[in-house]
Amino acid sequence: MQSKKKQIILNQTNHYIQKINSGSEFLKKIIQEQTIYGVTTGYGDSCTNTIAEHFHEKLPLNLARFHGCGLGKHFSSEITRAILAVRLCSLAYGFSGIRFELLKELEFLLQNDILPLIPEEGSVGASGDLTPLSYIARTLIGEEKVIFQNQEYQSKQLFQELKHKVFQLKEKESLALMNGTSVMTAIACIVFARTNYLIQLCSRITAMASIALKGNSFHFDELLFSLKPHKGQMQIAEWIRQDLNDTNQTNNYSRLQDRYSIRCAPHIIGVLADALPFFSNIIETEINSTNDNPVICAQTEKIMHGGHFYGGHIAFVMDSMKVQIANLADMMDRQMALLVDEKFNNGLPANLSGCFNTEKYINHGLKALQISVSAWTAEALKNTMPASVFSRSTECHNQDKVSMGTIAGRDCLRVLELTEQVAAGLLIAVKQALELRPDLQLSANIKIMFDNLNKHIAFIEQDRPLEETLRNLIKLIHNEEWKLYV
Protein backbone atom coordinates (compact mmCIF):
# COMPACT_ATOMS: atom_id res chain seq x y z
CA MET A 1 0.00 0.00 0.00
CA GLN A 2 1.21 3.52 -0.70
CA SER A 3 2.87 5.24 2.24
CA LYS A 4 0.35 7.79 3.53
CA LYS A 5 1.94 8.81 6.83
CA LYS A 6 0.18 11.65 8.59
CA GLN A 7 1.45 13.57 11.58
CA ILE A 8 -0.06 12.49 14.88
CA ILE A 9 -0.81 15.47 17.15
CA LEU A 10 -2.43 15.16 20.55
CA ASN A 11 -4.97 17.62 21.89
CA GLN A 12 -2.91 20.10 23.94
CA THR A 13 -5.72 21.98 25.67
CA ASN A 14 -5.66 22.24 29.46
CA HIS A 15 -9.11 20.67 29.59
CA TYR A 16 -7.97 17.56 27.72
CA ILE A 17 -4.69 17.21 29.63
CA GLN A 18 -6.61 17.52 32.90
CA LYS A 19 -9.10 14.89 31.74
CA ILE A 20 -6.30 12.38 31.05
CA ASN A 21 -4.38 13.16 34.24
CA SER A 22 -7.54 12.86 36.34
CA GLY A 23 -7.38 9.09 35.85
CA SER A 24 -3.92 8.70 37.37
CA GLU A 25 -4.77 11.22 40.13
CA PHE A 26 -7.91 9.28 41.03
CA LEU A 27 -5.85 6.08 41.09
CA LYS A 28 -3.39 7.62 43.55
CA LYS A 29 -6.22 8.83 45.75
CA ILE A 30 -7.87 5.44 46.20
CA ILE A 31 -4.84 3.16 46.02
CA GLN A 32 -4.85 2.86 49.81
CA GLU A 33 -8.57 2.21 50.00
CA GLN A 34 -9.34 -0.32 47.29
CA THR A 35 -7.90 -3.48 45.76
CA ILE A 36 -7.07 -2.68 42.14
CA TYR A 37 -5.98 -5.36 39.72
CA GLY A 38 -2.45 -4.89 38.43
CA VAL A 39 -1.87 -1.94 40.75
CA THR A 40 -2.16 -3.42 44.24
CA THR A 41 -2.23 -7.05 43.06
CA GLY A 42 -0.15 -9.34 40.90
CA TYR A 43 -1.09 -10.06 37.30
CA GLY A 44 -3.37 -12.71 35.81
CA ASP A 45 -3.89 -15.68 38.10
CA SER A 46 -1.64 -13.88 40.59
CA CYS A 47 -4.40 -11.32 41.22
CA THR A 48 -4.89 -12.92 44.64
CA ASN A 49 -1.41 -11.73 45.66
CA THR A 50 -1.40 -8.37 47.41
CA ILE A 51 1.55 -6.17 46.49
CA ALA A 52 3.17 -4.12 49.23
CA GLU A 53 3.07 -0.36 48.69
CA HIS A 54 6.84 0.01 48.29
CA PHE A 55 6.66 -2.36 45.26
CA HIS A 56 3.86 -0.51 43.45
CA GLU A 57 6.22 1.39 41.14
CA LYS A 58 8.40 -1.65 40.43
CA LEU A 59 5.42 -3.82 39.47
CA PRO A 60 4.87 -2.22 36.02
CA LEU A 61 8.56 -2.65 35.21
CA ASN A 62 8.34 -6.37 35.94
CA LEU A 63 5.23 -6.73 33.76
CA ALA A 64 6.99 -5.08 30.83
CA ARG A 65 10.06 -7.26 31.32
CA PHE A 66 8.67 -10.75 31.88
CA HIS A 67 6.56 -10.51 28.74
CA GLY A 68 9.67 -10.03 26.61
CA CYS A 69 9.46 -13.52 25.13
CA GLY A 70 8.20 -12.95 21.59
CA LEU A 71 9.63 -14.84 18.65
CA GLY A 72 9.37 -14.99 14.87
CA LYS A 73 9.93 -12.23 12.36
CA HIS A 74 9.50 -8.63 13.40
CA PHE A 75 6.42 -6.72 12.25
CA SER A 76 6.95 -4.49 9.23
CA SER A 77 7.44 -0.77 9.71
CA GLU A 78 3.95 -0.15 8.31
CA ILE A 79 2.28 -2.46 10.83
CA THR A 80 4.42 -1.18 13.71
CA ARG A 81 3.31 2.39 13.00
CA ALA A 82 -0.28 1.18 12.94
CA ILE A 83 0.19 -0.62 16.28
CA LEU A 84 1.50 2.56 17.92
CA ALA A 85 -1.30 4.66 16.44
CA VAL A 86 -4.06 2.24 17.43
CA ARG A 87 -2.76 1.94 21.01
CA LEU A 88 -2.48 5.70 21.30
CA CYS A 89 -6.02 6.13 20.03
CA SER A 90 -7.43 3.75 22.64
CA LEU A 91 -5.50 5.28 25.54
CA ALA A 92 -6.39 8.80 24.43
CA TYR A 93 -10.03 8.24 25.46
CA GLY A 94 -8.85 8.66 29.05
CA PHE A 95 -10.16 5.57 30.80
CA SER A 96 -6.90 3.77 31.55
CA GLY A 97 -5.64 5.64 34.61
CA ILE A 98 -2.48 6.97 32.98
CA ARG A 99 -0.72 10.32 32.79
CA PHE A 100 -0.79 12.61 29.78
CA GLU A 101 2.99 12.14 29.63
CA LEU A 102 2.53 8.54 28.51
CA LEU A 103 0.43 9.65 25.56
CA LYS A 104 3.15 12.15 24.69
CA GLU A 105 5.70 9.33 24.60
CA LEU A 106 3.69 7.43 22.00
CA GLU A 107 3.21 10.66 20.06
CA PHE A 108 7.00 11.18 20.18
CA LEU A 109 7.66 7.71 18.71
CA LEU A 110 5.18 8.28 15.89
CA GLN A 111 6.23 11.83 15.07
CA ASN A 112 9.88 10.79 14.84
CA ASP A 113 9.20 7.42 13.19
CA ILE A 114 10.97 5.55 16.00
CA LEU A 115 9.71 1.99 15.60
CA PRO A 116 10.11 -0.72 18.25
CA LEU A 117 11.23 -4.09 16.93
CA ILE A 118 8.16 -6.18 17.78
CA PRO A 119 8.19 -9.97 17.19
CA GLU A 120 5.09 -11.31 15.46
CA GLU A 121 4.59 -14.44 17.58
CA GLY A 122 3.52 -14.85 21.20
CA SER A 123 -0.01 -13.44 21.62
CA VAL A 124 -3.21 -15.42 22.14
CA GLY A 125 -5.32 -12.27 21.77
CA ALA A 126 -6.65 -12.08 25.34
CA SER A 127 -5.59 -10.72 27.85
CA GLY A 128 -4.84 -8.44 24.97
CA ASP A 129 -1.67 -8.50 22.89
CA LEU A 130 0.45 -8.59 26.04
CA THR A 131 3.75 -9.93 24.71
CA PRO A 132 4.05 -7.85 21.49
CA LEU A 133 2.85 -4.67 23.21
CA SER A 134 5.41 -5.17 25.98
CA TYR A 135 8.07 -4.25 23.42
CA ILE A 136 6.58 -0.76 23.27
CA ALA A 137 6.65 -0.44 27.06
CA ARG A 138 10.29 -1.54 27.19
CA THR A 139 11.15 0.84 24.35
CA LEU A 140 9.90 3.76 26.44
CA ILE A 141 12.02 2.74 29.44
CA GLY A 142 15.12 2.39 27.26
CA GLU A 143 15.35 -1.40 27.27
CA GLU A 144 14.40 -2.40 23.74
CA LYS A 145 15.68 -2.18 20.19
CA VAL A 146 14.16 0.23 17.69
CA ILE A 147 14.52 1.20 14.05
CA PHE A 148 15.23 4.88 13.36
CA GLN A 149 16.14 6.20 9.91
CA ASN A 150 16.78 2.61 8.72
CA GLN A 151 19.30 2.03 11.53
CA GLU A 152 18.93 -0.25 14.55
CA TYR A 153 19.46 1.32 17.99
CA GLN A 154 18.97 0.46 21.62
CA SER A 155 16.19 2.85 22.59
CA LYS A 156 18.14 4.26 25.57
CA GLN A 157 21.07 5.13 23.29
CA LEU A 158 18.79 6.75 20.70
CA PHE A 159 16.91 8.77 23.31
CA GLN A 160 20.23 10.08 24.62
CA GLU A 161 21.28 11.14 21.11
CA LEU A 162 17.93 12.86 20.61
CA LYS A 163 18.13 14.45 24.07
CA HIS A 164 14.91 12.71 25.05
CA LYS A 165 14.48 11.38 28.58
CA VAL A 166 13.83 7.71 29.25
CA PHE A 167 10.27 7.33 30.54
CA GLN A 168 9.49 6.25 34.11
CA LEU A 169 6.42 4.00 34.23
CA LYS A 170 4.01 4.62 37.08
CA GLU A 171 1.25 2.41 38.50
CA LYS A 172 -1.03 0.86 35.87
CA GLU A 173 0.91 2.36 32.93
CA SER A 174 2.62 -0.74 31.56
CA LEU A 175 -0.67 -2.63 31.96
CA ALA A 176 -2.46 0.15 30.05
CA LEU A 177 0.08 -0.08 27.24
CA MET A 178 -0.08 -3.86 27.01
CA ASN A 179 -3.58 -5.00 27.95
CA GLY A 180 -5.38 -4.33 24.68
CA THR A 181 -6.14 -5.50 21.15
CA SER A 182 -3.92 -3.01 19.33
CA VAL A 183 -1.66 -5.46 17.48
CA MET A 184 -4.44 -7.54 15.95
CA THR A 185 -6.43 -4.38 15.18
CA ALA A 186 -3.43 -2.75 13.48
CA ILE A 187 -3.00 -5.83 11.29
CA ALA A 188 -6.72 -5.70 10.48
CA CYS A 189 -6.37 -2.06 9.37
CA ILE A 190 -3.53 -2.86 6.98
CA VAL A 191 -5.29 -5.94 5.61
CA PHE A 192 -8.53 -4.01 5.12
CA ALA A 193 -6.86 -1.21 3.13
CA ARG A 194 -5.02 -3.62 0.86
CA THR A 195 -8.10 -5.82 0.39
CA ASN A 196 -10.16 -2.83 -0.69
CA TYR A 197 -7.71 -2.33 -3.55
CA LEU A 198 -7.41 -6.04 -4.30
CA ILE A 199 -11.11 -6.43 -5.11
CA GLN A 200 -10.78 -3.67 -7.71
CA LEU A 201 -7.68 -5.28 -9.18
CA CYS A 202 -9.42 -8.66 -9.39
CA SER A 203 -12.30 -7.02 -11.24
CA ARG A 204 -9.94 -5.42 -13.76
CA ILE A 205 -8.00 -8.68 -14.26
CA THR A 206 -11.27 -10.57 -14.79
CA ALA A 207 -12.29 -8.12 -17.54
CA MET A 208 -8.90 -8.53 -19.24
CA ALA A 209 -9.16 -12.32 -19.00
CA SER A 210 -12.69 -12.24 -20.44
CA ILE A 211 -11.53 -10.17 -23.41
CA ALA A 212 -8.49 -12.37 -24.00
CA LEU A 213 -10.65 -15.52 -23.91
CA LYS A 214 -13.24 -13.92 -26.23
CA GLY A 215 -15.82 -14.36 -23.53
CA ASN A 216 -19.46 -13.38 -23.37
CA SER A 217 -19.92 -9.87 -21.97
CA PHE A 218 -23.66 -10.44 -21.53
CA HIS A 219 -22.77 -12.31 -18.31
CA PHE A 220 -22.36 -8.88 -16.66
CA ASP A 221 -25.62 -7.34 -17.90
CA GLU A 222 -27.02 -4.56 -15.71
CA LEU A 223 -30.58 -5.90 -15.74
CA LEU A 224 -29.32 -9.37 -14.86
CA PHE A 225 -27.60 -8.10 -11.72
CA SER A 226 -30.51 -5.91 -10.70
CA LEU A 227 -32.43 -9.14 -10.17
CA LYS A 228 -30.00 -10.31 -7.48
CA PRO A 229 -29.24 -6.95 -5.94
CA HIS A 230 -26.35 -7.48 -3.52
CA LYS A 231 -24.74 -4.04 -3.61
CA GLY A 232 -21.13 -5.20 -3.71
CA GLN A 233 -21.86 -7.82 -6.33
CA MET A 234 -23.64 -5.25 -8.47
CA GLN A 235 -20.66 -2.90 -8.14
CA ILE A 236 -18.21 -5.57 -9.32
CA ALA A 237 -20.42 -6.35 -12.32
CA GLU A 238 -20.63 -2.64 -13.15
CA TRP A 239 -16.83 -2.27 -13.01
CA ILE A 240 -16.31 -5.25 -15.30
CA ARG A 241 -19.02 -3.96 -17.62
CA GLN A 242 -17.23 -0.59 -17.85
CA ASP A 243 -13.99 -2.35 -18.72
CA LEU A 244 -15.55 -4.54 -21.38
CA ASN A 245 -17.53 -1.70 -22.91
CA ASP A 246 -19.04 -4.21 -25.35
CA THR A 247 -15.62 -4.72 -26.99
CA ASN A 248 -15.97 -8.48 -27.00
CA GLN A 249 -19.60 -8.70 -28.07
CA THR A 250 -18.85 -10.23 -31.44
CA ASN A 251 -21.78 -12.64 -31.49
CA ASN A 252 -19.17 -15.24 -32.27
CA TYR A 253 -18.80 -16.90 -28.89
CA SER A 254 -17.19 -20.30 -28.69
CA ARG A 255 -19.48 -21.03 -25.73
CA LEU A 256 -22.90 -19.68 -24.85
CA GLN A 257 -21.84 -19.59 -21.21
CA ASP A 258 -18.29 -18.94 -20.02
CA ARG A 259 -16.79 -21.03 -17.27
CA TYR A 260 -17.55 -20.03 -13.71
CA SER A 261 -14.26 -18.29 -12.87
CA ILE A 262 -15.22 -15.67 -15.50
CA ARG A 263 -19.00 -15.76 -15.52
CA CYS A 264 -19.39 -15.81 -11.73
CA ALA A 265 -16.57 -13.37 -10.91
CA PRO A 266 -18.98 -10.68 -9.60
CA HIS A 267 -20.57 -13.29 -7.37
CA ILE A 268 -17.18 -14.42 -6.06
CA ILE A 269 -15.58 -11.00 -5.59
CA GLY A 270 -18.91 -9.52 -4.54
CA VAL A 271 -19.13 -11.55 -1.34
CA LEU A 272 -16.02 -9.80 -0.04
CA ALA A 273 -17.12 -6.43 -1.41
CA ASP A 274 -20.43 -6.75 0.40
CA ALA A 275 -18.77 -7.81 3.66
CA LEU A 276 -16.19 -4.97 3.77
CA PRO A 277 -18.53 -2.26 5.18
CA PHE A 278 -19.52 -4.63 8.01
CA PHE A 279 -15.87 -5.46 8.68
CA SER A 280 -14.98 -1.75 8.58
CA ASN A 281 -17.54 -0.97 11.27
CA ILE A 282 -16.11 -3.63 13.59
CA ILE A 283 -12.50 -2.52 13.04
CA GLU A 284 -13.33 1.16 13.56
CA THR A 285 -15.29 0.39 16.73
CA GLU A 286 -12.34 -1.59 18.10
CA ILE A 287 -9.90 1.23 17.31
CA ASN A 288 -12.13 3.78 19.03
CA SER A 289 -12.66 1.79 22.20
CA THR A 290 -11.10 1.44 25.61
CA ASN A 291 -9.78 -2.10 25.29
CA ASP A 292 -8.07 -2.32 28.67
CA ASN A 293 -8.54 -3.78 32.15
CA PRO A 294 -9.24 -2.44 34.66
CA VAL A 295 -11.06 0.55 33.23
CA ILE A 296 -10.71 3.74 35.27
CA CYS A 297 -13.46 6.36 35.16
CA ALA A 298 -12.29 9.32 37.21
CA GLN A 299 -15.43 11.33 36.48
CA THR A 300 -17.66 8.80 38.26
CA GLU A 301 -14.85 7.63 40.57
CA LYS A 302 -15.42 4.09 39.44
CA ILE A 303 -12.98 1.26 38.74
CA MET A 304 -14.39 -1.51 36.55
CA HIS A 305 -12.76 -4.91 36.21
CA GLY A 306 -13.80 -6.65 33.00
CA GLY A 307 -12.63 -8.23 29.77
CA HIS A 308 -12.37 -5.44 27.18
CA PHE A 309 -8.93 -6.78 26.18
CA TYR A 310 -10.67 -9.71 24.48
CA GLY A 311 -10.12 -9.72 20.70
CA GLY A 312 -13.10 -11.78 19.56
CA HIS A 313 -14.47 -9.22 17.12
CA ILE A 314 -11.17 -8.73 15.32
CA ALA A 315 -10.59 -12.50 15.33
CA PHE A 316 -13.95 -12.95 13.61
CA VAL A 317 -13.15 -10.30 10.99
CA MET A 318 -9.73 -11.76 10.22
CA ASP A 319 -10.96 -15.36 10.08
CA SER A 320 -13.81 -14.31 7.79
CA MET A 321 -11.72 -12.09 5.54
CA LYS A 322 -9.03 -14.67 4.91
CA VAL A 323 -11.61 -17.14 3.59
CA GLN A 324 -12.98 -14.64 1.10
CA ILE A 325 -9.54 -13.35 0.09
CA ALA A 326 -8.44 -16.94 -0.56
CA ASN A 327 -11.51 -17.33 -2.76
CA LEU A 328 -10.14 -14.53 -4.93
CA ALA A 329 -6.84 -16.41 -5.24
CA ASP A 330 -8.74 -19.55 -6.20
CA MET A 331 -10.78 -17.68 -8.82
CA MET A 332 -7.68 -16.10 -10.37
CA ASP A 333 -5.87 -19.45 -10.34
CA ARG A 334 -8.74 -20.92 -12.41
CA GLN A 335 -8.62 -17.94 -14.79
CA MET A 336 -4.88 -18.55 -15.21
CA ALA A 337 -5.52 -22.21 -15.98
CA LEU A 338 -8.02 -21.26 -18.69
CA LEU A 339 -5.62 -18.80 -20.31
CA VAL A 340 -2.62 -21.12 -20.60
CA ASP A 341 -4.42 -24.29 -21.68
CA GLU A 342 -5.04 -24.46 -25.43
CA LYS A 343 -7.99 -26.79 -24.82
CA PHE A 344 -9.84 -23.93 -23.07
CA ASN A 345 -8.34 -20.61 -24.21
CA ASN A 346 -10.20 -20.21 -27.50
CA GLY A 347 -7.27 -20.25 -29.89
CA LEU A 348 -4.43 -18.79 -27.85
CA PRO A 349 -1.10 -20.68 -28.02
CA ALA A 350 -0.27 -23.26 -25.36
CA ASN A 351 1.09 -21.65 -22.19
CA LEU A 352 0.68 -18.28 -23.92
CA SER A 353 4.06 -18.76 -25.57
CA GLY A 354 5.04 -15.89 -27.84
CA CYS A 355 7.56 -17.91 -29.84
CA PHE A 356 6.45 -18.94 -33.33
CA ASN A 357 9.74 -19.59 -35.11
CA THR A 358 11.80 -22.78 -35.31
CA GLU A 359 12.47 -22.57 -31.54
CA LYS A 360 8.81 -22.70 -30.56
CA TYR A 361 9.04 -26.25 -29.19
CA ILE A 362 11.88 -25.43 -26.82
CA ASN A 363 10.08 -22.37 -25.41
CA HIS A 364 7.45 -23.04 -22.80
CA GLY A 365 5.88 -19.64 -22.12
CA LEU A 366 4.07 -19.38 -18.80
CA LYS A 367 4.07 -23.08 -17.95
CA ALA A 368 6.11 -22.64 -14.76
CA LEU A 369 4.31 -19.43 -13.78
CA GLN A 370 1.01 -21.31 -13.84
CA ILE A 371 2.54 -23.89 -11.48
CA SER A 372 3.71 -21.15 -9.13
CA VAL A 373 0.30 -19.46 -9.19
CA SER A 374 -1.25 -22.80 -8.30
CA ALA A 375 1.25 -23.24 -5.44
CA TRP A 376 0.52 -19.79 -4.01
CA THR A 377 -3.19 -20.46 -4.24
CA ALA A 378 -2.87 -23.81 -2.49
CA GLU A 379 -0.92 -22.20 0.34
CA ALA A 380 -3.52 -19.44 0.67
CA LEU A 381 -6.33 -21.99 0.85
CA LYS A 382 -4.40 -24.03 3.41
CA ASN A 383 -4.15 -21.00 5.71
CA THR A 384 -7.91 -20.39 5.85
CA MET A 385 -8.45 -22.62 8.89
CA PRO A 386 -10.11 -20.31 11.46
CA ALA A 387 -7.69 -19.47 14.26
CA SER A 388 -10.40 -18.35 16.69
CA VAL A 389 -11.66 -21.90 17.26
CA PHE A 390 -8.23 -22.98 18.50
CA SER A 391 -8.53 -21.24 21.86
CA ARG A 392 -6.05 -22.52 24.44
CA SER A 393 -6.38 -22.39 28.21
CA THR A 394 -3.34 -20.44 29.38
CA GLU A 395 -1.85 -18.83 32.48
CA CYS A 396 -3.03 -21.26 35.16
CA HIS A 397 -6.52 -21.46 33.60
CA ASN A 398 -7.08 -17.76 34.28
CA GLN A 399 -7.04 -17.06 30.55
CA ASP A 400 -9.08 -20.20 29.89
CA LYS A 401 -10.85 -18.87 26.75
CA VAL A 402 -8.85 -16.63 24.46
CA SER A 403 -9.56 -15.01 21.09
CA MET A 404 -6.51 -16.01 19.00
CA GLY A 405 -7.18 -12.72 17.17
CA THR A 406 -3.53 -11.90 16.51
CA ILE A 407 -2.86 -15.30 14.98
CA ALA A 408 -6.02 -14.88 12.88
CA GLY A 409 -4.71 -11.48 11.75
CA ARG A 410 -1.29 -12.83 10.84
CA ASP A 411 -2.89 -15.70 8.93
CA CYS A 412 -5.13 -13.25 7.07
CA LEU A 413 -2.16 -11.07 6.17
CA ARG A 414 -0.33 -14.11 4.81
CA VAL A 415 -3.34 -15.15 2.73
CA LEU A 416 -3.52 -11.60 1.38
CA GLU A 417 0.18 -11.63 0.46
CA LEU A 418 -0.21 -14.92 -1.38
CA THR A 419 -3.30 -13.66 -3.20
CA GLU A 420 -1.44 -10.54 -4.29
CA GLN A 421 1.26 -12.85 -5.67
CA VAL A 422 -1.41 -14.72 -7.63
CA ALA A 423 -2.67 -11.38 -8.97
CA ALA A 424 0.87 -10.45 -10.04
CA GLY A 425 1.20 -13.74 -11.92
CA LEU A 426 -2.13 -13.29 -13.62
CA LEU A 427 -1.26 -9.74 -14.68
CA ILE A 428 1.62 -11.20 -16.68
CA ALA A 429 -0.73 -13.74 -18.21
CA VAL A 430 -3.54 -11.37 -19.23
CA LYS A 431 -1.09 -8.84 -20.63
CA GLN A 432 0.63 -11.58 -22.67
CA ALA A 433 -2.74 -12.94 -23.85
CA LEU A 434 -3.97 -9.54 -25.02
CA GLU A 435 -0.70 -8.94 -26.84
CA LEU A 436 -1.20 -12.27 -28.63
CA ARG A 437 -4.56 -10.98 -29.92
CA PRO A 438 -3.60 -7.64 -31.56
CA ASP A 439 -6.87 -7.60 -33.50
CA LEU A 440 -8.97 -7.10 -30.37
CA GLN A 441 -10.63 -3.75 -29.74
CA LEU A 442 -9.93 -2.64 -26.16
CA SER A 443 -12.04 -0.27 -24.10
CA ALA A 444 -10.39 2.94 -22.89
CA ASN A 445 -9.93 1.51 -19.38
CA ILE A 446 -8.23 -1.66 -20.59
CA LYS A 447 -6.10 0.20 -23.15
CA ILE A 448 -4.70 2.43 -20.40
CA MET A 449 -4.05 -0.57 -18.18
CA PHE A 450 -2.42 -2.52 -21.02
CA ASP A 451 -0.14 0.39 -21.93
CA ASN A 452 0.92 0.75 -18.30
CA LEU A 453 1.62 -2.96 -17.93
CA ASN A 454 3.66 -2.79 -21.12
CA LYS A 455 6.15 -0.59 -19.25
CA HIS A 456 6.70 -3.28 -16.63
CA ILE A 457 6.17 -6.58 -18.49
CA ALA A 458 8.07 -7.22 -21.69
CA PHE A 459 6.44 -9.57 -24.21
CA ILE A 460 7.57 -13.14 -23.55
CA GLU A 461 8.90 -14.64 -26.75
CA GLN A 462 11.96 -16.50 -25.47
CA ASP A 463 11.89 -18.23 -22.09
CA ARG A 464 13.27 -16.04 -19.30
CA PRO A 465 13.12 -15.83 -15.47
CA LEU A 466 10.11 -13.85 -14.24
CA GLU A 467 10.93 -13.41 -10.54
CA GLU A 468 12.13 -9.82 -10.87
CA THR A 469 9.05 -8.90 -12.89
CA LEU A 470 6.78 -10.51 -10.30
CA ARG A 471 8.46 -8.72 -7.40
CA ASN A 472 8.13 -5.40 -9.19
CA LEU A 473 4.44 -6.03 -9.90
CA ILE A 474 3.82 -6.82 -6.22
CA LYS A 475 5.39 -3.47 -5.29
CA LEU A 476 3.14 -1.76 -7.83
CA ILE A 477 0.10 -3.48 -6.31
CA HIS A 478 1.13 -2.31 -2.81
CA ASN A 479 1.61 1.22 -4.14
CA GLU A 480 -1.81 1.11 -5.84
CA GLU A 481 -0.12 1.96 -9.14
CA TRP A 482 -3.29 1.66 -11.19
CA LYS A 483 -6.16 3.99 -10.35
CA LEU A 484 -8.78 1.49 -11.33
CA TYR A 485 -12.29 2.75 -10.65
CA VAL A 486 -13.75 6.04 -9.48
Can you describe what's shown?
The chain is mainly alpha-helical and 486 residues long. It folds into two domains: 14-180, Orthogonal Bundle (Fumarase C, Chain B, domain 1); 186-296 and 308-478, Fumarase/aspartase (Central domain) (Fumarase C, Chain A, domain 2, Up-down Bundle). It is built from 17 helices and seven strands. The strands form three sheets. A three-stranded antiparallel beta sheet has the order 2-4-5. Strands 1-3 form a two-stranded antiparallel ribbon. Helix 2 crosses helix 5 (130-140) and helix 8 (182-212) packs across helix 10 (231-244).
Summarize the SSE layout with pairings.
Elements: H1 14-30, H2 59-66, E1 71-74, H3 77-91, H4 100-111, E2 115-116, E3 119-121, H5 130-140, E4 145-148, E5 151-154, H6 155-161, H7 173-178, H8 182-212, H9 222-226, H10 231-244, H11 260-263, H12 265-287, E6 295-297, E7 302-304, H13 312-340, H14 367-382, H15 405-435, H16 444-456, H17 467-478
Antiparallel strand pairs: 1-3, 2-4, 4-5, 6-7
Helix pairs in contact: 2-5, 3-4, 3-8, 8-10, 8-12, 8-13, 8-15, 10-12, 12-13, 13-14, 13-15, 14-15, 15-17
Give the ordered list of helices and strands.
Answer: HHEHHEEHEEHHHHHHHEEHHHHH
Structural class: mainly alpha
Instruction: Give the overall shape, derived from the CA principal axes.
Output: elongated
CATH topology group of the largest domain = Fumarase C, Chain A, domain 2
- Number of helices, where a helix is a run of at least 4 consecutive DSSP H or I residues: 17
At the first level of CATH, the class of the largest domain is Mainly Alpha
Fraction of residues in helix: 40-55%
Rg (CA only): 27 Å
Overall mean pLDDT stands at: 94
List how many beta strands DSSP finds: 7
Instruction: Identify the strand order in the major beta sheet.
Output: 2-4-5
